[in-house]
Write a structure and sequence with these properties.
The complex is a heterodimer. Chain A is an alpha+beta fold. Chain A has three domains: 63 residues, no CATH class; 160 residues, Jelly Rolls; 71 residues, Phage tail protein beta-alpha-beta fold. Chain A has nine helices and 16 strands. In chain A, the strands form three sheets. In chain A, strands 1, 2, 3, 4, 5, 6, 7, 8, 9, 10 and 11 form an eleven-stranded mixed beta sheet that branches. Chain A has a three-stranded mixed beta sheet with strand order 13-16-15. In chain A, helix 1 crosses helix 3 and helix 2 crosses helix 3. Chain B folds into two domains: 110 residues, no CATH class; 68 residues, Arc Repressor Mutant, subunit A (Orthogonal Bundle). In chain B, helix 7 packs across helix 10, helix 8 crosses helix 10 and helix 9 packs across helix 10. The chains are: A alpha+beta, B mainly alpha.
């Protein structure tokens, strides 16, 4: 057997991609070619990995051949999905400016409430630059005083990008837990009895909702995803792209990577009134890989039908998936 | 008509396996016959292995074994041979690590993996391919995607991409390498929906 197949596929594939890239860089020399040939000759694992990446890269040429209309994005902020959405954000910003003016004269609490429907998504921008994005079916209240900034996530999920200010702590209460910002971008998702916090940048502290400084808490690092039920906190470290997948809803997409069908369906059902139902436990265990618009149940159903070859029955209220 | 083309095809295959296969032949055969099985292979492995990297490793082993065999004698038909190799490797692996009961491994039928020759509808395949490419691009990180699109769509040189994006040529290299890796993973490993 090939000695090199002892190397992990990831390593071999990384080398193969690096060779493919290097070969198209300007200044590829005779010596480079010799070195590359030697690498190929080393093992079948190397050769198959190179053929594999080379084929994918060549296929991407069809983008041009078929005159595909996608364009590179501008390098500024991520595109806002719709003008209406922008208008909403601007409206909130003005409201926020006004309440900040009010706050300057009074330490009295200014409490506001925001919510989204199923399938909805909204952005709140505060005068201090802090942004909160509400995901589908979410209820959130804020109270900004001269002493502290407090948010209650009553239901659903939100992404926070907080302008850190040690003089004005930013705290999110969500059911059983409490997240204290220490300079940060993070995601909070509340579901029945548990709370999940994913930290993308900076630092946050996750503790019990009722706890004081001395109570149980965990300091999260970027990449950490913590789940708490109130009695315990479990922290696991995720790869960066796994966390980015979890925030893909901010761009109106759901990303699945070998996600069990049951979990993917549960995700979709958060965004749509017409519910997907899995009628067969064996089906629930199949896994799915792909990116879908949050509101495009049909695209998802297509995949289950044609790729997984499952039976799909649309009864109006729900869509039943079975073998 | 189908009969005729099938015969033609078997003819070429026989001719090829008579002579020892040259490297370009092996590559063309591998890309055409074996690579399209990767989504099904991965799905097969992923039912028993919870770690993606383990499935990737087994997939690599399958490719090596299958190509070793093909260098001696071309397997025909290809898919059942590839899955027989896959199943053996998986069973060994599962025995060694005591991952799941062996019964779970033997469950190829449950996956709906079909060994039929795909009878492709060309236009549907082109649409599908585009959708896949779009999806593959979508999952790249933003800057990486931008570099890939500038290279692939606009055909820019490294220097031009570096100027356009305001990054060094080394960073362009890095984005393109990562893009290649990710595109290969997505285009090959993700279920394609090649409906027979």
């Amino acid at each position: 057997m090939d000695a090199a197949s002892m190397q992990s596929a990831r390593d071999v594939r990384t080398q193969a991609a690096a060779w493919l890239e290097r070969r198209q860089r300007p200044g590829w020399s005779e010596a480079d070619q010799t070195e590359f040939d030697a690498w190929l000759a080393q093992s079948l694992a190397n050769r198959t990995a190179f053929w594999r990446v080379n084929d994918a890269w060549a296929r991407a040429d069809r983008l041009r051949a078929l005159g595909h209309p996608i364009q590179p994005e501008k390098t500024t902020e991520p595109r806002s999905p719709m003008p209406l959405f922008l208008k909403f954000a601007a409206g909130i910003a003005i409201v926020a400016v006004m309440s900040a003016g009010y706050l300057a004269y009074s330490a009295k609490a200014s409490e506001r409430s925001y919510s989204t429907d199923i399938g909805g998504r909204e952005l709140i921008t505060f005068v201090d630059g802090t942004r909160i994005e509400l995901n589908t079916d979410t209820v959130l209240r804020t109270r900004m005083t001269t002493r502290e900034r407090t948010v209650w996530l009553d239901k659903g999920e939100a992404y926070f990008r907080v302008k850190h200010d040690p003089a004005h702590p930013f705290i999110v209460y969500a059911g059983v837990g409490r997240v204290t910002d220490l300079g940060t971008a993070f995601l909070v998702r509340r579901s029945a009895g548990s709370l999940k916090v994913a930290l993308l940048e900076g630092r946050v502290r996750l503790g019990e909702a009722s706890g004081d400084g001395a109570s149980r808490s965990a300091l999260l690092r970027p990449g950490d995803e913590a789940t708490t039920t109130g009695r315990s906190i479990v922290v696991k470290h995720e790869a960066k792209d796994a966390l980015e997948n979890e925030t893909s809803w901010r761009h109106g997409m759901l990303a699945f990577k070998y996600t069990p069908l049951s979990a993917a369906v549960a995700e979709f059902n958060r965004y749509n009134r017409q519910k997907l139902v899995i009628a067969d436990p064996a089906v629930a265990r199949l896994t799915i890989y792909g990116t879908f618009p949050t509101d495009d149940v049909e695209a998802f159903v297509d995949v289950t039908k044609h790729v997984l070859r499952l039976h799909v029955k649309n009864s109006g209220d729900d869509i039943v998936i079975s073998r | 008509m189908t009969d005729g083309s099938d015969r033609g095809r078997n003819e070429t295959e026989r001719n090829r396996s008579d002579a020892s296969m040259t490297a370009p032949d092996l590559e063309a055969w591998f890309v055409r016959e074996v690579l399209p099985l990767e989504p099904a292979l991965m799905q097969f492995f992923r039912r028993s292995l919870h770690n993606r990297a383990d499935a990737d490793d087994l997939c690599q082993d399958v490719y090596v074994r299958v190509c070793e065999a093909a260098q001696k004698e071309m397997p025909h038909p290809v898919a059942p041979f590839v899955f027989a190799v896959a199943r053996n490797l998986l069973i060994n692996r599962v025995r060694r690590d005591q991952i799941v009961p062996i019964e779970a491994v033997a469950d190829l039928d449950a996956l709906g993996i079909s060994f039929d020759e795909p009878g492709p509808d060309r236009s549907a395949m082109a649409r599908q391919e585009l959708r896949r490419l779009q999806a593959a691009l979508d999952q790249l990180p933003r800057r990486c995607r931008e570099a890939v699109l500038l290279r692939k769509l606009e055909g820019l040189s490294y220097r031009e991409i570096s100027a356009r994006m305001g990054i060094s040529e080394d960073t362009v290299s890095e984005y393109l390498t990562n893009g290649m890796y990710a595109l290969a993973d997505f285009l090959h490993a993700e279920p394609a929906g090649g409906k027979p």
